[in-house]
UniProtKB/TrEMBL annotation:
GO terms for cellular component: cell-cell junction; plasma membrane. It is found in: Membrane. The gene is Tmigd1. The keyword Membrane applies. The chain crosses the membrane at residues 223-241. It comes from Chaetorhynchus papuensis. This is TMIG1 protein. GO terms for molecular function: cell adhesion molecule binding. Residues 25-114, 123-213 form the Ig-like domain. The lineage of its organism: Eukaryota, Metazoa, Chordata, Craniata, Vertebrata.
Length: 250
């Protein structure tokens, strides 16, 4: 009887396994985005929209697809999810540069293809245009520039190439910031400084007007405090000395 019971139990277990609607394996199944079956970079320009199309390959059944922009999931309409799915980026702008769009298989997210947007655009400059600085103080001119590909920068003063003087000028540069520092400005530093940014897609310029003002007279605080104390004490002594006269009047 034990043998029969055990055989019956095994038979029922196998029957449950056979009846279970197990999902088909994803081995051999792959995705492609714009005919790329592996991750790739897509170069594009500002403005015109771009379309990304994700397609399921080697599948014998309907497969649901998901799209992600970075870590955030993109909302798709019901008719745009099965076996083929399209998304449109319109218009393309600077914030899309370097962003990764990923198409994934819904039931096995390890099956995926990613595309990184390489949005190329000419230099766009910004920064404070006029700077008033007192003589002998430090001045910093900051030229903010966004561009792709990265651009090269040259500084000019009054339309002439600026010659950097040791211990007087300092130059600092990152991918988006070009900073010129002038230590202890002098009257001769007065003028218009131009930030020229050169890129294969075009050039950009921005003018910065440096106004060096006269040094403001510095009043010694100790002397002012001492004078106030002396005046106050003198007034008090004068009042005390004349208190009898004051009382007689009242």
């Amino acid at each position: 009887p034990g043998e029969v019971s055990r055989a019956a139990f095994v038979g029922r277990a196998w029957l449950r396994i056979l009846k279970c609607p197990c999902p088909p394996p994803s081995a051999g199944l792959e995705l492609s985005v714009n005919n790329h079956a592996a991750d790739f970079t897509l170069s594009t320009a500002l403005g015109p929209p771009i379309s990304l199309s994700c397609l399921v390959r080697n599948s014998s059944q309907a497969e649901e697809l998901l799209w992600y922009r970075g870590d955030g999931q993109v909302g798709l309409k019901d008719g745009n999810k099965v076996n083929i799915s399209n998304i449109c980026i319109s218009p393309v702008n600077e914030s899309d540069n370097g962003v990764t769009f990923t198409c994934k298989l819904a039931r096995d997210k390890s099956v995926q293809v990613s595309v990184i947007l390489d949005v190329q655009f000419p230099p766009r400059l910004s920064g404070e245009e006029t700077l008033h600085v007192e003589e002998d103080k430090d001045a910093t001119l900051t030229c903010n520039s966004k561009s792709n590909p990265q651009a090269q920068t040259t500084w000019y003063k009054d339309n002439h190439s600026l010659t950097l003087q040791q211990n007087h000028h300092e130059f600092y540069q990152t991918s988006e910031v070009f900073r010129l520092s002038i230590k202890k400005v002098k009257k001769s530093d007065n003028g218009t400084y131009t930030c020229l940014v050169e890129s294969p897609l075009g050039n950009g310029t921005r003018d910065f007007h440096l106004v060096v003002e006269d040094k403001k007279p510095v009043f010694p605080k100790e002397a002012v405090i001492a004078a106030v104390v002396v005046v106050t004490v003198t007034i008090l002594f004068g009042i005390v000395a004349r208190k009898d006269k004051f009382f007689k009047v009242w």
